[in-house]
Structure formats: C-alpha cells, structure tokens
Amino acid sequence: MTDNSSSAIIGQSRSLRQCVERADAVALTDATVLILGESGVGKELIARRIHERSRRARQPLVVVNCAAVPRDLFESEFFGHVKGAFSGATRDRKGRLETAHQGTLLLDEVGEIPPELQGKLLRALQQMSFERVGDDQTRQVDVRVIAATNRCLADDAASGRFRPDLYYRLSTFPIEVPPLRERADDIGMLSDHILAEIAGRLRRKPPRLSKQQVRQLCAYDWPGNIRELRNVLERVIILGSADLDAVLPPAPKPRAAALPRTPTETVDGDYVTADEVLSFERNNLIAALEVAKWRVSGKGGAAELLRMNPSTLASRLKALDIQRPAADSLYLRIGGRATITALARDLLGRMQADPQVGRFWSDRSIVGIRQEEKLLIQYLCSELGGPTRYAGRDMVSAHAHLPITASDWRVFLQYLERTFEALGLDQGSRRSLQAAVGQLEPSIVTS
Predict the structure, then answer these.
(1) I need a surface site. Which of 23, 93, 284, 360 has the fewest CB within 10 A?
(2) How far is CA 277 from CA 73, 134, 191, 228, 258, in A?
(3) Whose CA is closest to 219, among 195, 194, 249?
(4) 151 φ, ψ to 5°?
(5) Which letter, b or e, does each residue of 138-162 get, where b requires 16 or more Cβ atoms within 10 Å of its Cβ?
(6) b vs e for 60-82, b when ≥16 Cβ sit within 10 Å of the residue's Cβ?
(7) Residue 164 near residue 366 (C-beta atoms within 8 A)
(8) For 23-71, what is each residue's pLDDT tens digit?
(9) At 365, is the pLDDT very low, low, confident or very high (cuts 50, 70, 90)?
C-alpha cells in the first residue's frame, strides 16, 4: 500500500496489511493503543496514522521519548511546573500532557520509564488530571494515549520491572508491527520509495535497483529493520555504488526463519497444553472469519486467508463448535471479538489502577490477571451471542467471596461508561450492555 500522508506506510505484505487494518480500525475510537515491535520497524508511523485518522487529527500529536527523559525532570516534562518550583524554573511551563490536550500523546519507548515514576504517570492517565510541579491546582485534560515499545511489557510486568496496572491501562488495543525480515516482499517497493526520498533531499538522481540487488537486499536479515535499510540506501546514493557488498554490513547472515508464534505462554517456553492449542486454533479461525465477514469459501473467504481447503476449514469449525453469530446479535453489533477484547482490557486496566477497586488485584500475579482477562473475554463473547459457548468458571460464583460493595459497583459503572466512550460504542449498544451488566449486580454485590 502507498500513502501520501505524513504517515506514509509502504508495502503490500499480508502481515503489514493486517497491522494497518488494525490501526485504521482503532483510529476511529479513543481507545488506548500499545504498539509493539522491534527497534526501527516504524512504530511511530503507525501511531501517526492512527492520529491522522482519528477525530483528533486537527489537534496536536505530542511525542515523548520516555527513554530520554531524566529521572529528576520526569514530573516537569510530563506535568509542567510553575515559576520558582525548583532551581532554574524561571517561568511557568506546560508539560507534555497539557500540550496534548484534545490531541494525542505518544509515549515512545514507554518500557524505559523507571518503576518509581510509573505510578505518577498511571495516576495522571487514569484520572486525566495532574498538578504542575510546585502548584496545588489540579488541571483536567482530554488526551488520547498511544504507547510504543520494543520491549515485552507483559514479561516486564510479570518480573516486576513494569507496573502490571499501568501495563493493562496501556494495552487496551495492542498492535504488533512486523519486522522487516517477515515482510521481505515489501523490500523492493520500500527501497524504491526510500531511494526517491533520499535522492530528492540530496538533489541527486535516484538509482534503480536491479532484480539481483533486490534479491540481495531480501536475503539480508535486517536486524535494524527499516532504519537500517534507509541507512544502507543512503550510503548507496552518497557513494554512487552499484555494489551492495560495499555498503551492506560485513557478512550478512542468512535471513532467519520467523519464530513460530506460540498460542500462549508456556512453562519454561517448551510446551503448551492441548487445551491451549485448541483455544489458539479456535481464536485464530474466528479472527479469520471475522476479517472475511464470515464467508468460509470463495475469494477473500476465511479458507483463502488461512490457506486451507474450504472443506477442511468447515470440518474444523464443526469439530470446534464454531457457529456464525446471528446477524442481530450484540456480538456482531459492537464489532465482534476484537471490540470485546479491547473492552475487557480497557475496563480491567482502569479498575486495576483505581485506588478503591484496585485492591481486588493487589495480590494477583500478572499470569493470574492475564488468565482472568482471557476468561472474561470468552464469557462476554458467549453471553453477547458470539460463535462459541463459554466453558470457563462461573463468573457469579467466582466473585461471590469478594467483598464487593455498592460503592465499588458505582465505581465499576463509571469506568464501564468511560470504556464505552473510549471505544466509540453507539448508544443502543451501550444500553444493551448496561442492561446485561445490571442483571449481575444482585448476585455479586454484598449488602
């Protein structure tokens, strides 16, 4: 695909198309997005695309490189300060959060925020309010948050390096940007685009790559991804060299095969259970069916997307008891599993970060929280008329032993409404969901 906006994303590979489709879908909402990917893959381009296609496009996109913010200036950088707040504060200054009001705040390299400072950021993002350093006036903001990282924040949260409640607050809608080695089909088109861009800047004629040169570029592993490709092509133009061996790093290793994506976390990374394999297969088939608008065969059907024989796919759907949801189901009306997953993650993130109801998760491990999230998603998909029946633990009995008060319930309803707003759900869907939730109150709220 090509794009004439400032967030130009070049390529036609399947993995890139899927990434961009997710970005375009979430752009229409205010949901918090976590962009994952190796260094140099173009995470900021995805963030800019989301901003430019959102209702906030006319407002600022404020980018903060969290790894570059000194610890002693963190609060001032994010929240601003007033004159005289500390040595060198000669005037009032807005922070990045206030500058991004009504726009988008991109937290680049969010995984590099020191643990002792993550709580302060979490509070501000949770309440959308803050105080400037040296000031006691609370200021309210309206900001859409996008975070980006090349780290595995889930592992960091499990190890205690990153706050689990902040991780869940940020990971409402994760988007993984594929590394360049997994989209080799895009390298030729991408190289032509980069060469034309660099040549225009250097006022030189862009060279044309031969088929052999493109094959040579495709064979390289590109550990630095697009950033490294750009550097190599700039050297080609500067040196006027047609010999890529002269500008590629020495002895490029063969392109490594992509590591298989495991269906879920494993014990020591060496195996998964049969139930986990089936769960992964079931979710994968549903994802393909939803992209294909529940068409199994034919051009653009799920079988074609999955590269399966239609009869084989039909057999697996029957074996896994996957049925097409009713056209008028709330499941389809709100956007299927992707929207329900975003809803569950956003709601859990908000509640875990709350000083009152967050107590229910204070002694839970990150593994336990993630398992709870999976069960909640399965439960909601089933209850809202989704393609599979829920077979997990009973949600009412699971909460029966918790001292959930009427005050806790009111906090929950407030966050539920905020989640509906962030995901852009229509009023009809909101009323239906609120009615379904309301039926649970007598069973789980203690008198």
Answers:
(1) 284
(2) 47, 54, 38, 36, 19
(3) 249
(4) -95, 165
(5) ebebebbbbbbbbeebbebbbeeeb
(6) ebbbbebeebeeeebbbbbbbbb
(7) yes
(8) 999 999 999 999 999 999 999 999 999 999 999 999 999 999 999 998 8
(9) confident
Comparing 256-265, 271-280, 410-419, which segment has the lowest mean pLDDT?
256-265
Cα separation, 305 vs 91, in Å, equals: 58
Place of tokens 């009306």: 333
Using DSSP bridges, classify how beta strands 104-108 and 129-131 pair: parallel, antiparallel or unpaired: unpaired
Residue 359 pLDDT > 50: yes
Which pair of structure tokens corresponds to residue 273? 């259970």
Question: Has residue 345 got a pLDDT over 70?
Answer: yes
Per-residue tokens: 223: 């550990």
Average pLDDT over residues 240-252: 62
Is 76 within 8 Å of 129 (Cβ atoms)? no
Pairwise CA distance, residues 70 & 405, whole Å: 42
Going by C-beta distance under 8 Å and a sequence separation of 6 or more, which residues neighbour residue 342? 26, 29, 31, 172, 173, 423
DSSP annotation string for 211-228: HHHHHHHHHB--TTHHHH
Q: Tell me, what's the pLDDT at 250? A: 55
256 against 230, higher pLDDT: 230
How far is it, in rounded angstroms, from Cα 335 to Cα 339?
A: 5
CB 245 within 8 A of CB 207: no
Tokens of 18: 């899927």
Backbone angles phi and psi of 284, in degrees to 5: -70, -40
